[in-house]
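thought: fold this chain, then report.
action: predict
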Amino acid sequence: MSEEYRKFDAVDYIRNEEDVRGLLSAAVDEDPGDGTVIRAALKHVARRQNMSALARDSGLNRGNLYEALSDDGNPTLATLLKVTSALGLRLRLEPAGDGTRGEQPASAEGSQQR
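observation:
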């Protein structure tokens, strides 16, 4: 018996808006801090939505959009904002963890210097 394999393509598993939100949420959570996972997830979503339509809706050149979302791409913040907006999404920033960034909270006594 011979088994057939086909290349995994995340686009095959993005069926609806809930899948899009789940993929992008997971990408944000799993990104190592350099944007590679987020960029890859956006590329899959963009391919699923139709790259030409996304380019038109975002006001970006299709070739530039492909380049920005490629494995070697490094999209600017402006590009990310245009792409997410064209996808009907909003880019939000929120505190990571407990929001202290490793800083010690100032005590009431320590904040009043004499």
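thought: worth noting. The chain has a mean pLDDT of 85.
final: tokens above.
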